[in-house]
Amino acid sequence: MTEHEDADIPTNEGHGDHWACLFRDIETTVTAHLPQVVSEGSLLGVAEPAPIMGEATAGIWWPGQANRGTLALVAINARNEDGTPGNLFMSAYPAVLDGPIQPLTIQEVLPWSNGIEGLVRATFPEEGGSGPEIAFFDTLFYLNRDRYRPGLTLPFRLAAFAHWAQVVHPEPVVIDNPETIAAMRKGTEHEGDMSPIDVIMSGAAILFPRDDLSPDDAEAQGPVRAVDHVLWAGVPLICCRITVVRLLDREDEDIDIPVLIAPHAWKTEERPEPGNDLQALIWIQGCLADNPAVSGAEGVAPNG
């Protein structure tokens, strides 16, 4: 939820819909939550110089003893409206600082207009070229923006919050078009067999970008590998680790992302168990796995 308003800010900047992943009533709940973050949080890291406003940008992390919480960004010694120096609240968002580590090759860096937040487009590296693409909001962009270059491969931790989610029971897809059947069986021991082909959708890993919403939003469907229950600012969340990508040259390694789901985000009453298939519209986050400011902060060491 970026506090300053600007008519030129693209519609995909800001965190209103991201807070809605956690709170049903964001106007009341987030307004009450942010002062607690700033007053009770711990310093996560300071980036100097500030790209646009103030002498530096400070990250304030709440709670101090967890790796899932809120990060507030404050411009240090910025100019108030009357011209006097002061510390200006810039933005705050729910953030996850742990998650599975994945090497990603940066394709594009998309800074927001405030200069301290931004997105990263990257690909999963594969032998002989680039693999599937993923875009994510960088939760520690203010600290690491100068480290990013297109073509550079770095280790990132990935996670997501769900706009909505549901357990699904995919039915097999039947292919009965003769031309498609002939093409699929050409060169196999079943060439010439024109009986329908069943395509099993259960257990499929699907990640479909929703650039029409925002580059860091995607529809995901995949098998649930693990289920955990966590508490976030008083909200009971279900954390599902689901497989969203499978790489051709790394058949023994699925790409899993933990997805945090609030009670109001569920479309149905059914709740997931390991082995189920989960479908969700997710807001994807990421951060560099080697963050000196994070690994050096007491209680905020996402090494698991």
Description:
It is globular, with a radius of gyration of 21 Å. Strands 5, 6, 7, 8, 11, 12, 13, 14 and 15 form a nine-stranded mixed beta sheet that branches. It has 304 residues and is mainly beta. The two termini are 29 Å apart. Helices cover 12% and strands 46% of the residues. The longest helix is centred in the first third of the chain and has 15 residues, at 26-40. Residues 1-11 and 295-304 have low confidence and may be disordered. It has two domains: 16-95, no CATH class; 96-169 and 200-295, no CATH class. The chain has helices at 16-19, 26-40, 141-144, 178-185, 292-295; strands at 42-47, 56-62, 68-79, 85-96, 101-111, 118-126, 129-138, 153-168, 173-175, 197-199, 206-209, 217-232, 235-246, 254-261, 277-288.
Number of structural units classed as domains: 2
- Identify the overall geometry: globular
Q: What is the straight-line distance between the termini?
A: 29 Å
Low-confidence stretches: 1-11, 295-304
Number of strands: 15
Helix content: 10-25%
Q: What is the chain-wise order of helices and strands?
A: HHEEEEEEEHEEHEEEEEEH
Number of alpha- plus pi-helical segments: 5
What fraction strand? over 45%
Supply Rg. 21 Å
Q: Which secondary-structure class do the elements indicate?
A: mainly beta
Strand count, sense and closure of the main sheet? 9 strands, mixed
Q: What's the rounded overall pLDDT mean?
A: 85
